[in-house]
Amino acid sequence: MSLAHGRPYLAIPGPSVMPDAVLRAMHVASPNIYEGDLPAMMAGIVPDLKRVARTDGQVAMYIANGHGAWEAALANTVGVGEEILVAVTGRFGYGWADMAEGQGIKAQILDHGRQSPIDPQRVADALRADTDRKIKAVLAVHVDTSSSSRSDIAALRQAIDAVGHPALLMVDCIASLACDVFEMDAWGVDVMVAGSQKGLMVPPGVSFVFFNARAADVRAAIARVPRYWDWQPRANAEFPYQYFGGTSPTHHLFGLRAALDMIHAEGIEAIWARHATLARAIWAACDVWGDGGPLSLNITAPAYRSHAVTALRLGAPYGSALRTWTDTEAGLVLGIGLGMSEPDDPDGTGFFRIGHMGHINPHMILGMLGTIEAGFIALKIPHGSGAVSAAAQVIAGG
Ligand SMILES: *Cc1c(COP(=O)(O)O)cnc(C)c1O
């Protein structure tokens, strides 16, 4: 008999849990898109998004998921046949590089494996070797959601500057924005992409490209930018129709307005601190479990772990078995392992991921950890004891 009835918990790394306030804000009749509440709201959404990104630059919005923002960022900065350098720390780095290849851009890939952050020195070496300065942009994924590796973007900027290379620094913050500390301007990021459905707690379907003046100059020099992806009219919109190159995603915007209100009421620094504490609680539990069983955190060094997603290895077929158990027996959906196949486990069934981004608090995290422990017991997966207490200690400030 399943015990799963009650409010389910979707603990995958996006889409994330939607706050009731966001759901309520979206539950309204179709608004007039030309005048009234919706157009009036737009002027406030832009600066509030920029506050989350910590930038005085500009933002263009798209009716698209993160893949659309990837393509938009490239379409405005890199011409067909030009070159980029992609520092890859997991599946999503490859995904962005693949989008570039599809646009006729040549992507040089620096593969860091799936258990490490970006090595700024390797990026610097690759840029130094580019004596003709052909590389137009360095692409980096801040938190690669497949590996849960988090890279030091400020150090990456310093490495690029040390070489004196003019390439733009373009960063994917789809999994990290409003979860992990990110400072677009202070860290010298030229272009940043984000989506609505992770730290921003809104359904998937809207994405954002933030860019600074340097990137705007690069855009101005590009021979041809596809009209729909062109960030220029969107970022300088004067009437509602221009923000999205057509009809606005009306209900997403009502949800986003509610989410931004929640974010700024809590404060972005407080949100970063909440995610850090809850992430440390999860790691503490995982360390205890791992002491008495096969569980291990994919990223060894805490400094390079995401505060929004945790990739774990249990060994085949335990990962998939655990996910099935927590879903069907307890109403908790855990994330699949992504890009994590191994020679003796081609489907990556030994891995799983915990999404802990956005609208999460101690009772959700402790309940999630306690449920995973029940799954370990039910499935006879060996594990150390006292994990939930260890997490509670962290949350209590111990
Ligand atoms: C989720 C995610 C993406 C892809 O976003 P979609 O909305 O699924 O297109 C890209 N990069 C990172 C880091 C992500 O977490």
Compile the SSE list and pairings.
Elements (H helix, E strand, L loop, with lengths): L8 E3 L8 H7 L10 H17 L4 E5 L3 H10 L7 E6 L2 H12 L3 E6 L8 H10 L5 E7 L1 E2 L4 E2 L2 H11 L4 E5 L18 E5 L11 E5 L1 H9 L9 H5 L4 H4 L6 H17 L1 H24 L4 E2 L11 E5 L4 H13 L1 E5 L14 E5 L6 H17 L8 H9 L3
Parallel strand pairs: 1-13, 3-4, 3-5, 5-8, 8-9
Antiparallel strand pairs: 2-10, 6-7, 9-10, 11-12, 12-14, 13-14
Helix pairs in contact: 1-10, 2-10, 3-4, 5-6, 11-13, 11-14, 12-13, 13-14
Bound molecules: pyridoxal-5'-phosphate.
The site of pyridoxal-5'-phosphate has 14 residues, from helix 3 and strand 6.
In short:
This protein is 41% helix and 16% strand. The chain contains 14 helices and 14 strands. Helix 5 packs parallel to helix 6 and helix 13 runs antiparallel to helix 14.
How would you characterize the overall build of this protein?
The chain is an alpha/beta fold and 398 residues long. The chain has 2 domains: 21-265, Aspartate Aminotransferase, domain 2; 267-396, Aspartate Aminotransferase, domain 1. It has 14 helices and 14 strands. Strands 2-10-9-8-5-3-4 form a 7-stranded mixed sheet, sandwiched between helices. A 5-stranded mixed sheet has the order 1-13-14-12-11. α3 (66-75) crosses α4 (91-102). The protein is globular, with a radius of gyration of 21 Å. The two termini are 38 Å apart. It binds pyridoxal-5'-phosphate (PLP). Pyridoxal-5'-phosphate binds at residues 14, 65-67, 92, 141, 143-145, 172, 174-175, 195, 204.
